[in-house]
Amino acid sequence: MTHDARDVVTLREVARAAGVHPGTASRALNEATRSLVRPETVERVVAAASALGYRPNYLARSFKTRQTRSVGVVIPDINNPLFPPMVLGIEDRLTTEGYVTLLANTQNEAQRRERIFAEMLERHVDGLIVATAQREDPELVELAQDGIAVVLLNRVVEDRSFSSVSADDGAGVRAVVDHLVGLGHERIAHVAGPQSMSTGLARYQGFLSSMQAAGRRAEPELVAAATSFTINEGERCATVLLESGGAPTAIFAANDMLALGCYSALERAGLRCPEDVSVVGFNDMPFIDRLNPPLTTVRIPHYELGAQAAQLLVDQLHQPHEPLRVLLLVPSLVVRGSTAPARAAVRVG
Amino acid sequence: MTHDARDVVTLREVARAAGVHPGTASRALNEATRSLVRPETVERVVAAASALGYRPNYLARSFKTRQTRSVGVVIPDINNPLFPPMVLGIEDRLTTEGYVTLLANTQNEAQRRERIFAEMLERHVDGLIVATAQREDPELVELAQDGIAVVLLNRVVEDRSFSSVSADDGAGVRAVVDHLVGLGHERIAHVAGPQSMSTGLARYQGFLSSMQAAGRRAEPELVAAATSFTINEGERCATVLLESGGAPTAIFAANDMLALGCYSALERAGLRCPEDVSVVGFNDMPFIDRLNPPLTTVRIPHYELGAQAAQLLVDQLHQPHEPLRVLLLVPSLVVRGSTAPARAAVRVG
DNA sequence: CTGAAAGCGCTTACAG
DNA sequence: CTGAAAGCGCTTACAG
């Protein structure tokens, strides 16, 4: 009825068939302890195991060793197209290392996040890959202090006690600003992301420093900060910028969702993109190249981000006293139809 | 160093603190057996447990009971925007039922699929939600015969030995055909999906019967079958249709990806959508409403699909001899800018 | 190099 | 209603 049939052959039976003690059979079958056993014995045990179709009982093993070879992956929202490629990268790497992926979405709800972490620990995951970090994240810091293996993905905590894999936002933003400056834009605005997240802050700071490096000033009326990375917030902020009197000829949005909101705001204001205002995003979401106009944006290697995070975690699991590692992957600017040479300043409202 | 600190308090200690035998403590703490214990004793045990911060060891429990309260979710490709909402629906429902989600992508590779199923069984998942079914799927049928609880999601196996949750494709297609016929289209073409999948077949058959019901003939030169649900295949098939001499004024693509390919083919042929040719998709992928033109398509309640599949599985787990259930969720046509009244027949090539 | 034994932390017949 | 005991299937010190 259930799949107990599969489980019917146990280590004890393999041992009997091979004429050895179960302990010996265990050692022979386990990679790590195999060298303790005489080669001929190993061979005998392995033969018996495969003859009987022996499959070790993971539950028993996990119970005994307190290791589950599973890792918890905590993301904000799988519906955000950023995350699926990361999850795939994680899964691919984890799988080849013999780990299994427990996935959970926080949906940005504190209560849900707490539940998820508690559940993952109850399930004895060997480690956690967390893509929901806030810059200040006491909950996460506490986890780390409890000695749970955690790798941060995409976003980062201010407290530098985590290994992490994220994109080099500074480099990405620099490429954006250089591109816009190169097109002759004088009045470049920024729709910043939430400053409570490392990505929002890093891109904002990158904007300030890149502007300065390019000899431009980032005027206060040309910056608006969104409270979330959503289309609605992008529209709201872009509207603020357009009505501020700052007369931007280009808007750099801290991610593609916000950029989509910029499109909406421009449309509502009767402005054309890129003729009147250029728009740049960040992330290179799927299908963003099929919009009208196709969005100029910064491509982040999301799959790689996930794969590297998984690797870091696995390394850390195998070598618990490994020093922390902070990986920054290189993004690249993808120029499409939403940016064009600056024309004249535009004033609205 | 590890989170062993959390595990330090064991059932035995709770029992001692409450002055009862561990067996009694177990019964008192377990929902199902609590009624066997005198209320005052239950109270004492519960108090002791919470005073000591007792957390049952899942590993021990799973080992003993052979249940893990985990379910494997097998999807073709998380990067396909269809699946994230389904996965979220699954996770939400599973979580409230106390189950955890093991996620894996087959990437449509047979080898990978086999590995995944083997792994999931090794991990003793309580059941499986499978969105990768082929119409003929001996592997899956075998699983079911082994008595593993399986619920099919989105796609279905010809062999009717599974519970499943999918969309009522026939109803969706009917709405599409009626819409196009209502717009005066005489020559309606179909880019069919892979006929090895139930979705591809059902939508094709739905097309045939709806056309017939509407008094139209589905001419052979107005149907082309894709070998995969991809943009490239959509473009290839649409090109075939446009060059076949059938002169379609509307193309119904079996999903949005294929419809995207139709857009490309029209563009390459110098035809405008919807002025020259109307296009309809299926699924209502995220952001498909932001394309140029916004795609008319059939909305499928993907989140609900996932949630219902999870529910079916959980029900089946709790009530193993429950009869199979086949759920068909109702889709709805979303009319956007890619469809317009028919003008004249168009001939290309 | 191998055997004998203990034990991981629970659950669950079985007695009483 | 509760206790005493067995046992799930492994791994791993400990002897020899």
Describe this structure as you would to a colleague:
The structure is a homodimer of 349-residue chains. Chain A is α/β, with parallel strands linked by helices and 349 residues long. Chain A has three domains: 4-56, 434 Repressor (Amino-terminal Domain) (Orthogonal Bundle); 70-167 and 302-330, Response regulator (Rossmann fold); 169-300, Response regulator (Rossmann fold), CATH 3.40.50. The first copy, chain A, is 43% helix and 15% strand. Chain A has 13 helices and twelve strands. The first copy, chain A, has helices at residues 4-7, 11-18, 22-29, 39-52, 58-65, 83-96, 110-122, 138-145, 169-182, 198-213, 231-243, 256-268, 302-318; strands spanning 70-75, 100-105, 127-130, 149-153, 163-167, 188-192, 223-225, 250-253, 278-280, 297-299, 326-329, 332-334. In chain A, the strands form three sheets. Chain A has a six-stranded parallel β-sheet with strand order 2-1-3-4-5-11, with helices on both faces. Chain A has a four-stranded parallel β-sheet with strand order 7-6-8-9, sandwiched between helices. In chain A, α6 (83-96) packs parallel to α13. The radius of gyration of chain A is 26 Å and the shape is elongated. The termini of chain A are far apart. Residues 1-6 and 345-349 of chain A have low confidence and may be disordered. The interface between A and B is large, with 51 and 51 residues. Chain A binds a DNA duplex (16 and 16 nucleotides) through α3 and α5.
The CATH architecture designation of the largest domain in chain A is: 3-Layer(aba) Sandwich
Average of the residue pLDDT scores of chain A: 93
SSE ordering of chain A: HHHHHEHEHEHEEHEHEHEHEEHEE
- As an assembly, this protein is homodimer
What's the CATH superfamily of the largest domain in chain A, by name? Response regulator
Poorly predicted ranges of chain A (pLDDT <50, ≥5 residues)? 1-6, 345-349
The CATH topology of the largest domain in chain A corresponds to: Rossmann fold
| Helix content estimate of chain A | 40-55%
CATH class of the largest domain in chain A: Alpha Beta
Number of strands of chain A: 12
Count of the separate structural domains of chain A: 3
Global Rg of chain A: 26 Å
Gross geometry of chain A = elongated
